[in-house]
């Protein structure tokens, strides 16, 4: 183990040391520095993209690079490793997929790139974007995620698609169980991408990340790209590590120059309420003139809460759908598509919906439960006010949430405003109606959770 490796392990959480070393960032950091603004390209041509790829972008009305695309595409094309940070809705996905596709077109083989994401929904969204911009080169890509038959996935991996988008848990399952042929498919990977890197570089993903990275080429023989909306301590420490000679340099770009990336057009409010009437306050919001026509995502901390609220509001005849990890994969996709098509105005979800999902028309975020990590709050509220559009967040605060709210406000350097649109009097009038619906919903949830266990046995689905 080199001195650089030892220093890195000391600086990071002990549960993360192997992951961060294996990503390749520990031995390749070379004096990270910000590009000066005058050097930022203003067109895709100036970024170094070829004419055929620029033409493909024009066909889908993408004519000008965003800040993170303009700054990161060039260095990636030049062979540099990259940490890219920008607020949600800033075009981070295209910042790494465009240069990867251009380089792939010059020497197409599989598996050329591995993209790891923390959630199935984000993996599917990246897949959708690749389907659009990869048509000109007959790009072959696949998603390796939970909820899908493992044998079917293994057969696809053996055929070696150009790009694999995967959740670490499911890919690790394949590495452990699908045999040497699957492992061999990743021996020539040119690019490793960690999308939503702040979450992937946490202890929860540590074991599976190690399993995924160990089968890849050594760090010096591939490019490593990290993209995130939040600069965490783990990523910040990676930036400051000393370098080893002879390795690929690291390019660092942080659009905001700060670890906090709350959209400037977001109005952040709170409602202080007793915890036992939260459901009724939520119902009142959905029936308040100010909010009832707005597309809304409600975030909960537990899957059971999300499912209960969804069933309860269906009983109350609201157009609502749910998204959480207890749902079968097919139903998760259907729920998300239903919300995107605005067939349902309300999506009730756990944090699987807080990362990377690009739904431009969302106008309201409700934190039904206060997140325990301030960074999760940033990702949740980042689902609205995207691309400089307006948006609002409402956070339900009970007595036990005070310290959590104070931690969030300190982290984002902003005080939330008290929401003034909700009538306490009307809430009291609706208590009985909502309570009756809640009881009916709770009765219907007797078998909740058993379906997930059945799916695990059927698909070997023990991970996201």
TrEMBL record:
Cited PANTHER family: ATP-DEPENDENT RNA HELICASE, ATP-DEPENDENT RNA HELICASE RHLE-RELATED
Matching InterPro entries: DEAD/DEAH_box_helicase_dom, DEAD_box_RNA_helicase, Helicase_ATP-bd, Helicase_C-like, P-loop_NTPase, RNA-helicase_DEAD-box_CS, RNA_helicase_DEAD_Q_motif
A Pfam family assignment: DEAD
Protein name: ATP-dependent RNA helicase DBP8
Keyword vocabulary terms for this entry: ATP-binding, Helicase, Hydrolase, Nucleotide-binding, Nucleus, Ribosome biogenesis, RNA-binding
One of the record's GO cellular component terms: cytosol
Family of this protein: Belongs to the DEAD box helicase family.
GO function terms (MF aspect): ATP binding; ATP hydrolysis activity; RNA binding; RNA helicase activity
Residue span(s) of domain Helicase ATP-binding: 73-249
SMART domains recorded: DEXDc (SM00487), HELICc (SM00490)
């Amino acid at each position: 183990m080199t001195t650089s490796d030892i220093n890195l392990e000391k600086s990071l959480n002990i549960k993360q040391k192997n992951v961060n070393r294996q990503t390749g960032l520990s031995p390749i950091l070379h004096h990270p520095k910000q590009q000066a603004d005058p050097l930022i390209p203003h067109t895709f041509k100036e970024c170094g993209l070829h004419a055929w790829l620029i033409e493909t972008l024009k066909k889908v009305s993408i004519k000008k690079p965003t800040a993170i695309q303009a700054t990161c595409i060039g260095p990636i094309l030049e062979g540099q490793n990259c940490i890219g940070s920008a607020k949600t809705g800033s075009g981070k996905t295209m910042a790494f997929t465009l240069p990867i596709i251009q380089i792939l077109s010059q020497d197409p083989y599989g598996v050329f790139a591995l993209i790891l994401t923390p959630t199935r929904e984000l993996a599917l969204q990246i897949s959708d974007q690749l389907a659009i911009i990869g048509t000109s080169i007959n790009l072959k890509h696949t998603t390796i995620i939970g909820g899908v038959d493992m044998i079917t996935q293994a057969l696809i991996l053996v055929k070696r698609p150009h790009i694999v988008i995967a959740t670490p848990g499911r890919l690790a399952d394949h590495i452990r169980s699908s045999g040497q042929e699957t492992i061999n498919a990743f021996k020539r990977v040119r690019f490793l991408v960690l999308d939503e890197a702040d979450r992937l570089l946490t202890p929860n993903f540590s074991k599976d990340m190690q399993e995924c990275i160990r089968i890849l080429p050594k760090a010096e023989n591939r490019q490593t790209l990290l993209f995130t909306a939040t600069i965490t301590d783990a990523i910040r420490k990676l930036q400051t590590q000393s370098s080893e000679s002879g390795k690929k340099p690291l390019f660092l770009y942080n659009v905001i120059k700060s670890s906090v990336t709350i959209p400037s057009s977001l109005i952040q409010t709170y409602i202080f309420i007793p915890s036992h009437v939260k459901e009724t306050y939520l119902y009142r919001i959905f029936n308040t003139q100010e909010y009832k026509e707005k597309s809304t995502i409600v975030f909960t901390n537990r899957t059971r809460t999300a499912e209960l609220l969804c069933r309860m509001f269906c009983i109350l005849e609201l157009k609502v759908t749910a998204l959480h990890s207890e749902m079968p994969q097919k139903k998760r996709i259907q729920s998300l598509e239903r919300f995107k098509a605005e067939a349902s105005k309300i999506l009730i979800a756990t944090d699987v919906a807080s990362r990377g999902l690009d739904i431009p028309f969302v106008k309201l975020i409700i934190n039904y439960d206060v997140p325990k990590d301030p960074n999760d709050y940033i990702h949740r509220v980042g689902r609205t006010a995207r691309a400089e559009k307006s948006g609002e967040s409402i956070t339900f605060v009970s007595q036990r949430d005070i310290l959590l709210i104070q931690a969030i406000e300190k982290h984002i350097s902003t005080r939330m405003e008290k929401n003034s649109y909700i009538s306490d009097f009307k809430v009291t009038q609706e208590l009985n109606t909502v309570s009756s619906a809640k009881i009916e919903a709770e009765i219907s949830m007797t078998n909740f959770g058993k379906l997930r266990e059945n799916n695990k046995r059927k698909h070997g689905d023990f991970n996201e």
